[in-house]
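Sample intake — Thiamine-phosphate synthase family protein
Collected from: Saliphagus infecundisoli
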Amino acid sequence: MRFVEEVVVEEFLPTVRSLLAAELREQGLTQSEVADVLGISQSAVSKYAHGDVETTEAIAEDERVRSLVDRLGEELATGETTRVGALVEIEVLIRELEAGGDVLSRLHEERMPELADHDASIRVHDPDNELRTSERVLSSVRRGLRIVESASGFAGLIPAVGSNLVAALPDAQDVDDVAGVPGRIVDVKGRATVPAEPEFGASGHVASVLLAARAAGSPASAAINLRYDAGIVADLREAGHVAVEFDAEGDLTESVGEAIKAEPEATALYQTGGYGIEPIVYVLGPDAEAVADTARSLL
């Protein structure tokens, strides 16, 4: 008797590790760094590099496997995803490939011919799980932050209170369901600086603006705050954004909600300040990368 998990351990994992090790080496990582990323020994990396580990052609040539390996190799090398994020993505792919009739189930049937006559799918896990969704949101914020950090002159868009780039889970209810930067993005000697890795619950204010907009019907899943300037608002409008003003001194949820209800297509919100309140522009978008791109376009 052979379980599909044995196919995963004996054929899928060696194949994917071999492909991923090669991709990471192509990305410029040393053998030691590859070993650290994959959580294996340097001698194991050497074996993968020299083709001393047997791989399975059907898995290595699967388009989904190749696509995921290429993407994870780049994102792991640049820090756009974490080991946990990569593990979740690979785990989900495994469950997809275990579905009846797919590559792992076919290999399983070859090793266990009696299964070929069994109709039931052997898919056992839901790919749309909570951990995977959370990791995708965090990865989106990381990619957005890379855009912000590399954008020459972005520091000039940071308000005195600092900026934050946030992204929400699909069913976000409160700030703990929104990922952002602990300590905010700050201007350090004319350079936009991200002090820490994004995490959920790290943003209070910008997350609250995003949540209020979503509660009022906005489809936005991400937001960033920038310093207010009439020229910035004009540039956003010229680029096709719908910019709406809201009352800075009123209740935040109510004020933002009223603005969105007045202009449901709004992709930029702004307030011109009040007593002790700095004027701010908030850019909304479908994900953190899109929001960061919009901010970069203002430079």
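Post-analysis note: The chain is about 50% helix and 10% strand.
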